[in-house]
């Protein structure tokens, strides 16, 4: 059973959440008057983006469509992306004598000699196309590093919050994404989708799909920029007049190419990861990716992770009956959240956004990517998530379930529970499974 502290915090959490939900239900919101939307709430504790490699991860925020919606992303870039890819040593190479100075393949001074120059040396950090300031450990990445720099898989992450709260910039989500980026050695793109009731269904789902198309666009623009002979990929680099004429810019004169992704991202190894209601978005985006097929090239969704998905249905499952008054998110409050999210004329617990088991939802489940489902023993939504996983396995989709004993909804992502051994173990378990599908060598220990 959860500790006394968790139980007390759950009571306080539910009281605040219920008050906020009821306030928003009573407040009339005209969606047409605010199509731009909101992606975070004033009461949310947010973490500022930091381009320096704090704890081995650099972050920055980008507005995908600043003139139309509030949709944004936060990119988490591991410092390992600056290292050259591992190269096998020649078998015929003799072992160095003890008097020889060893030369590590991972020694940054060997990879980028200028980093070893004195601070006042004009050659410091002047290697081609770079905007890396090692004196302050800030990586701008306005153009790719040397050609042999590592290209990392991309995890597209959707936060939780019951449709009406949560943020990709929240402190808890920032800590979780940093953890996943380090354990999986990937670039995490956390999506700041529009919240309800300002923007009801399908706004959040459309935002998730828009970011997937944006990833494809980024890679295509990067390749286009290379073919045009541009010497740099982003704002802040120095251009010649000829380069300025060739450079791809948007209506505001800013580069359309995201430099971190262009330099280090590999969209052909893309994983979707959704937390709570974000899992519903991830599953929707996965379905649309299957339907799009090669139209999304070069993006390829190779797997998805559904963490305690926000599934519900008209016919209650056993856990929905027995655990209806569970910790943090009980069934009554989740129903309020669904009422705020779904348009009044479409409200149904068997809505395609709510129930993954309704027939004719499309596409055929046998085409779905491998799907890892994480559930908590004390979560009333667990049984429907397990049933969805079982349905996928019946059509030969790799769809394991990780169930955690005495765990509650959002046990691995809630701010109070982030540092528990269970939360850490869950992230490690996810990393082990995900690496099977993002590894270039085909098994989880090769990456």
Folded structure, characterized:
By secondary structure, this protein is α/β, with parallel strands linked by helices. The protein contains 11 helices and 10 strands. Strands 1-2-6-5-7-8-9-10 form an 8-stranded mixed beta sheet, sandwiched between helices. The protein has a two-stranded antiparallel ribbon with strand order 3-4. α1 packs parallel to α9 and α3 crosses α11.
- Parts with pLDDT < 50 across at least 5 consecutive residues: 94-135, 142-146, 230-254, 443-447
Gross geometry: globular
**Strand percent estimate:** 5-15%
Summarize the helix and strand pattern as letters.
HEEHEEEHEHHHEHEHHEHEH
* Quantity of strands, as a count: 10
Give the helix/strand class.
alpha/beta
Sheet having the most strands: 8 strands, mixed
Treating each run of at least 4 consecutive H or I residues as one helix, how many helices? Answer: 11
Give the overall pLDDT as a whole number: 80
Q: Walk across the major sheet and give the strand order.
A: 1-2-6-5-7-8-9-10
Give the oligomeric state of the chains in this entry, treating copies of one chain as homo and distinct chains as hetero.
Answer: single chain
Q: What distance lies between the first and last C-alpha atoms, to the nearest angstrom?
A: 37 Å
Using only CA atoms, what is the Rg?
A: 23 Å
Helix content: 25-40%
């Amino acid at each position: 059973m959860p500790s006394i502290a968790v139980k007390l915090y759950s009571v306080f959490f539910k009281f605040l959440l219920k008050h906020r939900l009821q306030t928003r239900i009573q407040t009339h919101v005209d969606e047409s008057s605010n199509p731009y939307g909101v992606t975070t709430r004033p009461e949310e504790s947010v973490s500022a983006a930091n381009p320096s490699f704090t704890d081995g991860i650099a972050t920055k925020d980008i507005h995908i469509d600043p003139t139309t919606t509030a949709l944004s992303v936060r990119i988490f870039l591991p410092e390992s992306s600056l290292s050259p890819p591992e190269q096998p040593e020649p078998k015929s190479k003799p072992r160095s004598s003890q008097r020889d100075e060893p030369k590590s393949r991972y020694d940054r001074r060997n990879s980028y000699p200028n980093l070893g120059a004195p601070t006042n040396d004009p050659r410091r950090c002047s290697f081609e196309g770079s905007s890396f300031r090692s004196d302050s450990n800030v990586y701008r990445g306005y153009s790719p590093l040397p050609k042999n720099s590592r290209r990392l898989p991309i995890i597209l992450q959707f936060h939780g919050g019951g449709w009406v709260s949560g943020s990709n910039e929240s402190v808890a989500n920032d800590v979780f994404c940093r953890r996943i980026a380090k354990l999986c050695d990937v670039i995490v793109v956390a999506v700041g989708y529009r919240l309800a009731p300002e923007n009801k269904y399908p706004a959040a789902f459309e935002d998730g799909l828009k970011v997937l198309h944006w990833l494809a666009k980024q890679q295509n623009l990067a390749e286009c920029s290379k073919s045009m002979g541009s010497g740099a990929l982003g704002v802040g680099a120095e251009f010649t007049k000829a380069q300025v004429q060739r450079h791809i810019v948007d209506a505001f004169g800013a580069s359309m190419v995201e430099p971190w992704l262009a330099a280090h991202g590999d969209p052909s190894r893309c994983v979707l990861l959704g937390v709570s209601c974000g899992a519903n978005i991830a599953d929707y985006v996965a379905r649309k990716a299957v339907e799009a097929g090669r139209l999304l090239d070069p993006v390829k969704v190779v797997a998805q992770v559904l963490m305690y998905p926000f599934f519900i249905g008209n016919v209650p499952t056993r856990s929905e009956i027995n655990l209806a008054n569970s910790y943090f998110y009980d069934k009554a409050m989740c129903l309020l959240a669904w009422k705020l999210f779904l348009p009044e004329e479409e409200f149904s617990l068997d809505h395609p956004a709510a129930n993954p088991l309704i027939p004719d939802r499309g596409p055929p489940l046998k085409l779905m990517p491998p799907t890892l489902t994480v559930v908590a023993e004390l979560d009333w939504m667990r049984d429907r998530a397990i049933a969805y996983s079982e349905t996928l396995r019946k059509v030969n989709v790799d769809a394991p379930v990780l169930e955690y004993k005495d765990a509650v909804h959002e046990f691995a992502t809630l701010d109070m529970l982030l540092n528990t051994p269970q939360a850490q173990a869950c992230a490690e378990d996810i990393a082990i499974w995900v690496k099977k599908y993002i590894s270039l060598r085909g098994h989880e220990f090769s990456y």
